[in-house]
Amino acid sequence: MMIKIFTFAIAVCINVQVFAQTNDYSIREVKSGLYIPWEMVSAPDGSIWFTQRHGAISRLNPVTGEMKQLIFEQDVSINNGEGGMLGLALHPDFPNTPEVFCSYNYLLNGNDYREKLVVYEYNPVTDVLAFKRLIKDGIEANVIHNGSRLLISNNKLYMTTGDANDLSFPQNTASLNGKILRYNLDGSIPSDNPIPGSAVWSFGHRNPQGLAMMGTKLVSSEHGPSNDDEINIIEAGRNYGWPNVEGYCNLPAEATFCTSNNVYEPAKSWTPTIAVCGIEFYTHPLFPQWKNKLLLASLKNQALYVLTFNADQNTVISQVDIPEVSFGRIRDVLAAPNGKIYVSTSNSNNVNNKIDKIYEIYDPTPTSLDTGETISSKNNWVASPIPSNNTITIQNKLNHGAAEIDLVDISGKLIKQVHFQGKQMQIDISSLAAGFYYLKIKEKGSVSQVLKIQKL
Known about the structure:
By secondary structure, the protein is mostly beta strands. It has helices at residues 252-260, 373-376, and strands spanning 2-8, 14-21, 26-34, 37-42, 48-52, 56-60, 67-72, 85-90, 99-108, 112-123, 128-140, 150-153, 156-160, 179-184, 200-203, 208-214, 217-222, 229-234, 268-270, 276-282, 293-298, 303-309, 316-321, 330-335, 341-345, 356-362, 381-384, 391-396, 403-409, 414-420, 424-428, 435-443, 446-455.
């Protein structure tokens, strides 16, 4: 059910927000009037920084909806295709090192469409971004198949590039197209890259538009042609097959090529395609049903999917979509440090048709639980397994001693109360109706944490 409510934002005019209510999460419209927000990242102050394809990098307050454009890059060319201002990443020590990494498309010599990777510097006094240095330019581009996602992990910068609609590029390791690239943060080539002096980390890609860390593993999502969209586990120096292999190595010619060329088969392949896009590995306890699973934005199927991997994290074993998340084409997904999830849409068909939005998925924990976000994020207590049919094991990682645990339903009604002593105990939930419940942990008379559980 969709309803509109009106709420006052601090020191701004009335802000219209749209909510969808389910029994375990709610959805709120944060910002509208955007032109294809391509990539979103979280800043240390809780704001969201994001690119729009026409050339803007902006900062969004997800609480009030207030937005500030930090730069509009005049060098950007959208070329009426898939290009424009695309990938975005903040320096891991931001704001102490206020560097912002970005990839975008431009016209070289006025007519040659290319892609570049640059660094901007944020000035907190003027509250703007300014160009600082170039990492790489001249990467081939086209109206389609440009990548491009950025990700920083372990002080290394990863960038996806598409094949620029040229099948000769992906298998050619001298080309930077159809690749995942890896740089040091200063723009130099890491000494442990698989090809000395080259930024190429993996090759044989068609058009990867999602990039995330899943624990210690690098994961990408990749558009197939009319078949075989892919989720890939990325390893250094590995070949991912395109254009000789589409999806799995399941045809005779593909099997021969895969054996001869060290091809890494996808963890998941979709035929027909769903138009995979942004991905995010969710690790926060706010939504335990999605914890340690991969969130995937879909353009064609207009959905946000939850992918479960096997124990070795090399194969997707199940896929479900999150109901109510159906706002048209979904371009990106972001998991904020507080556990809230943000999705951006990709419905605008030109720069003058700014109909795209950013939505927030949040936990509608009843106020009657008497706890706040800061307290509940302490994570000193854990509950498992979630979901469960019969029993939930409660563990106190700090072993502080006694506690009272209230089991309450979604409305805050008390179901049962148990006394906790020691390091862990089990709570029988077999008689409960299927749904979501909360365990309210009380230590020394005060609520110290709230855990959400699910009864199947």
